[in-house]
Amino acid sequence: MRAHLANTVSLAAIVVVSALFGTFVWWRAPGIDQYMRDWMIQARGPLSPPDDIAIVAIDEPSIARFGRFPWPRALSARAIDVIVAAQPKAIGVDVLYVDPTSEADDDALARSIQQAGNVVVAAQLIASPATGGPANWLLPLPAIERAAAAVGHVNVSTETDGIARQILIRVADDQGRAIRAMAVEIIRIGDGIADQSLAETPRRLLLGSHVIPVETIAPSLVIGAQGAESSTQTLRAARMTIDYIGPAGSYRTYSFADVLGGRIPSARFRGKYVLVGATAASLGDRLASPFIHQEDAGPSQHGSWMPGVEVLANTLNTILRSRFYSETPDWLAFLCGALVAALTLFAMTMAQGRHETIKQIGVLAAVIVLILLAGYLAFTRFLVFPPLTLSLVSFASAGVFGLLRKSLVASTQLDRSIEDIQRAEESLNAMSLGSAAESIARLAEAEAVAIYTLREGGRIRLVAAHGIAILRKGSGGFALPPDNNHGRELVVIPIEGSCGSNAGTLVIARAARVPSIEIQQLCAAIAGSLVEVRAEEEKSSRWWWPRGLAWKARSLSDLNGRIVDRAKFVDLAMRSVEDILIIAGVDGRITFANRRAAAVLDSSEQALRGRDLLGLLAEAEQSAPEAGRDVLVRLVVDRAKIEREIIIGGARPRHFTLRMAAVCSGEDGRGAVRGIVASLSDITRQHELQQTKNDVMALVSHEMRTPLTAIQGMSELLAQFELDPERSREMSIAIHDEAKRLTHMINQYLDITRLESGATVLRRAAVRIEALVERTLLMLDPLASERGIRLTRHLDSNVTPVIADGDLLSRAISNLVSNAVKYSPPKTEVVISARNVANGVAIEVADRGYGIPEDSLNRIFEKFYRVPRVQDVDVPGTGLGLALVREIAELHGGSVAVRSSGAGSVFTLWVPCSGG
Ligand code: ADP
To answer: Which whole-number Å values give the CA distances from 872 to 173, 698, 708, 813, 851, in the listed order?
Structure first.
């Protein structure tokens, strides 16, 4: 509400100031307004000539016909006679008959004028009283003056620019003889108005039915002999403005020679005002009208200089047609200015948004056009001189002030935004320098802590302190205040900057004991994490006036630096997280993946960017990729949180807890979804522990119970009953076998567990495979021959030695071969071969035994698994042999695989040359 009010007040102030400024210029520079008026007259263009005014021109053809001017006055007398014969309303002769010529001529003219009865003759005042020189009338010869119906002056007031715009209604000479303007006299005579019935007021002259508005500019002049009241006359310097209908030559003009030659029909003059005067350029008597373009003599010139008689015709026409322009009153002009200013501001306010500059230029141009159009209409239609100067100045100043105001408002808003960002940034920074100093004091058990930064130019500045003030000595060292110094030492620790440079100094004082090097390093790290970022912090204070551009630029670059630093820190922190962290867009495309993600997914952080998160996860856990779409729907649409366990990796699979959730713009999963965040925590270790627990449970609850129950049962029988010796021996053997099996099982289980947990250290050495296989088979030969099974060797002589633990490898081979022997019918063959393959050695054990059913193939390597098969019932075993083989193979970086058909199985043990 307050902002709204301030807005309105500032706009109103601009409107008033603009209108005042416009009015000031309008008053102080009237010349500009004159030019505007001339421009409008020219823009209006010539009007059609009036019917009731005719000019008889002493033009070039007349001079050619009658010789050089002045002509014998009898010629003028004849011309007047011809015109009079046509019965004009009045005749105005704009020719000065000052000097006597021949008596006959002068008399002839006086006679003609006398006979006409409606002729007004010209008088001219030489040297205007305004110039201070003597002012004398050039009057017609007394005889002519007497004969004339009236005498009128033909003086025209020209202004500083030389353009004749006004005439004085009445002009007086030094003797106080006042003569009215010729145009006024012509109308008076034409309308038959008596001299006395002319009424004059300060604002207008009443001439019969014509009212002439006048402008009284000079103080009134009182003329008359002192004391002679009756002859006292008050003269007002009343001016009348002339309206020109067009440039020179706009009136109906007839050549003097043609009039005298009788070539003009008398109807042309009947009932009209006929003006006789010189138009020939050689005769001078020419004035500048507003239609003249003095600067431009080219073809576009609007008109030439105007003969005096045409100026007289224009004056006459102005009065006859009442073409008097009214001035705009000052208050109305001011209002116009205010209106223009308001319109300008309104237009500027409206023209905002896209393409603002173009819009603003457009509306401002429209306002100018509107001002000019309205002015032109007022001028041409309503004969009003519009306050164009005032309006245009108001427009310009409103425009300038409006722009200034806009930039101030924008600048203030920018200040506010900067402050908001500063505050937000500060609130994000949980640790301030002050709290850092406090933490350091706590960690170092110190009473005083001071953090200094090293500024440009090597200057040191205190940025944070805690506890007693630490003083800086002139010599560059530090000290405690003398009254507070109890002999304890100060510890001065340099603070390292981001590039290993010196960023400042940390001073710890009055520590209970000197902190250890590690604590000192920790404190320096805490101080170092903040000094660089915070060095330039500047508190902003609120002030209604916007701050300077330099401040804004500095604050923005400072903020920018801090925000970039923060972003870098967050990025570093996220990349350093030990869990897998992946952030994706709403469409599931990865935008961020940390180092661990790249390591586990066998890729680089860069390469993961842009890939489909859910597709990648499906690929990693080898599940159907289509399910990804449903997961995306659940995350983004249902805003569900997903948590499940996944297994990644083929040979040595790792277990992870996958957590996925949508990142929303609002708190608690509200607002628009901005993306998806996925984290994967490695739980392989927990998984293994769980598995071990399960295995032990299985071992104890199932595998061990059976033999133990048997041992228990048989030992009970032996103890309770007297059995025959043969039977007792059998039972004792059975108990021994079961106990042996149990021991074997426990040993084998412990071996596997030790291998899995890493407790067994591999004793690696170069191992020649043929020799190793040969040695192993030697031990198995008795077992094979016992079952009538032949062990056949196919050992390449050039098998590459491998780096491996020979004992473990021998155990693995032994397990495979003994299985082949155990699970084959007698009199069959087991073939053991070893050969070089890509990057390693493959040892193959093929038998012609019972084979392994399809559905058991992928389970036989599990602990305790045994194929349920009738033929094997009596075959002793623990189900741990193959699990041990796999563990040994994997520990060496190799693998074990099996293929089996109905007739026999083939186990292949692959060991890389490097031994993993
Ligand atoms: P066991 O102590 O029972 O031999 P193993 O882990 O060595 O345990 O083998 C697991 C199971 O795989 C055996 O019980 C047996 O059913 C099957 N098996 C292993 N080797 C062969 C083979 N060469 N031919 C057929 N079955 C086999």
So the answer is: 156, 21, 21, 21, 11
Tell me the C-alpha distance between 414 and 409, whole Å: 9
Protein residue whose Cα sits closest to atom 25 of ligand 1: 851
Taking only the tens place, the pLDDT of each residue in 465-493 is 888 888 887 777 888 877 766 666 788 88
For residues 307 and 276, what is the distance between their CA atoms, to the nearest angstrom?
11
* DSSP-based helix, strand, coil % in the chain, nearest 5: 45, 20, 30
Give the three-class secondary structure for 290.
coil
pLDDT, tens digit, for every residue of 119-178? 999 999 887 555 666 778 889 999 999 999 999 998 887 777 778 888 888 888 877 788
CA 146 – ligand 1 centroid, Å: 160
How many CB atoms within 10 Å of residue 251?
Answer: 20
In the reported structure, the alpha carbon of residue 653 is separated from the centroid of ligand 1 by a whole-number distance in angstroms of 24
Å from CA of 905 to ligand 1 middle: 10
Ligand 1: which atom is nearest the Cα of residue 904? 24
Q: How far apart are CA 60 and CA 482, in angstroms?
A: 114
Distance from the alpha carbon of residue 865 to the mean position of ligand 1, in angstroms: 8
d(CA 234, CA 224): 9
Does the pTM of the predicted model rise above 0.70?
no
Residue carrying the six token digits 């020179």:
248
- Distance from the CA of 900 to the center of ligand 1, in angstroms? 12
Q: 201: which 2 tokens?
A: 């007021």
Nearest CA to ligand 1 atom 20: 819
Spell out which residues line ligand 1, taking CB within 6 angstroms: 815, 819-820, 823, 847, 849-850, 852, 860, 865-867, 869, 872, 877-883, 905
CA dist 58 and 255 (Å) reads 6
